[in-house]
Design the sequence.
């Protein structure tokens, strides 16, 4: 009897292997929601993060991007830690994600939270709102470069104010001081909450303030404040087109008060790929672009892999500055 030629079975073996590989890839790529999607927010209703969550909810449902109902859950308290602890209990389940800001980094650096971005699954950077430096309209200061020169000559010559210590707004103030060669810890820095910051600026109680551009623009448009610098990599468009960047003026800093979507721990590649597709479609919609422009957000979308790399760089930059300021734990 003639022995079967082993090579004669090769095409069948190859075909079976290809089928198995294709089936496996297809199964990986076919993940989709089977129940309600829940967007977690660590701040109160009406906050910036809450507004972003509800806008995403609207687009997902009106556009049919997820095919299931979408709810928003405000888990408020503990400087955001209650929401993050809640999300951690959903490990491996892509039906949940949280709207995040830089506090997921700074809370860990400052020692107020035991977890950070790497303990979860970054899904998307949705937008950046850059930080502006402003002075009163009648201030003799014409630029951030001039601020740096004055501080170089006399570290006590100027005072600055911002909304919170240990924030990205604080970093902008510190970097302006560092650019002058002074110890940033010796900068005359005041911290004001809520509307008190604008009261201090408009009343001339401080020489300059740093906060997000959306807080500044109404007062700039009314002629009461003047924007002299912005923390973006390049000049922005629209109403901010003539504002020079900090880097143009000798302050080596690009930083944004960003917002992103972060999923629970241990999501699978298929689940991440699903959300990559949803967010990529969302940021291309007309309504998303119009909202970003209206609220002075730059739609600098990054997918999950890009966002993870971005977060590591952002964390390292913030930690280095907070270590120098003596705030890191």
Sequence:
């Amino acid at each position: 009897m003639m022995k079967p030629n082993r090579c004669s079975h090769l095409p069948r073996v190859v075909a079976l292997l290809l089928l198995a590989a294709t089936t496996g890839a297809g199964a990986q790529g076919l993940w989709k929601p089977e129940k309600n999607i829940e967007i977690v927010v660590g701040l109160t209703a009406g906050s910036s993060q809450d507004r972003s969550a509800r806008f995403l909810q609207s687009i997902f449902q009106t556009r049919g991007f997820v095919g299931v109902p979408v709810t928003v859950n405000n888990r408020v308290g503990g400087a955001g830690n209650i929401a993050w602890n809640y999300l951690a209990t959903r490990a491996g389940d892509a039906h949940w994600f949280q709207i995040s800001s830089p506090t997921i980094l700074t809370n860990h650096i400052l020692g107020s939270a035991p977890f950070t971005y790497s303990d979860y699954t970054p899904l998307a950077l949705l937008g950046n709102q850059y930080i502006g430096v402003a002075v009163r309209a009648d201030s003799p200061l014409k630029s951030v470069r001039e601020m740096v020169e004055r501080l170089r000559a006399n570290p006590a010559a100027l005072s600055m104010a911002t909304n919170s210590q240990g924030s990205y707004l604080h970093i902008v103030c510190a970097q302006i001081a560092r650019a002058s060669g002074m110890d940033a810890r010796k900068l005359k820095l005041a911290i004001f909450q809520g509307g008190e910051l604008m009261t201090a600026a408009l009343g001339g109680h401080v020489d300059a303030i740093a906060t997000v551009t959306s807080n500044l623009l109404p007062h700039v448009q009314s002629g009461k404040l003047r924007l002299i610098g912005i923390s973006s990599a390049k000049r922005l468009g629209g109403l901010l087109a003539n504002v020079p960047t900090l880097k143009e003026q000798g302050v080596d800093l690009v930083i944004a008060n960003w917002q992103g979507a972060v999923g629970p721990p241990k999501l699978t590649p298929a689940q991440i790929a699903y959300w990559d597709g949803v967010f990529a479609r969302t940021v291309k919609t007309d309504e998303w672009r119009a909202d970003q422009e209206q609220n002075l957000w730059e739609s600098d979308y990054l997918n999950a892999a890009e966002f993870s790399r971005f977060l590591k760089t952002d964390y390292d930059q913030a930690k280095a500055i907070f270590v120098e300021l003596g705030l890191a734990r």
Q: What stands out?
A: The domain at 131-249 is CATH 3.40.190.10 (D-Maltodextrin-Binding Protein; domain 2). The chain has a mean pLDDT of 91. The first strand starts at residue 37 and ends at 41. The first helix runs from residue 10 to 29.
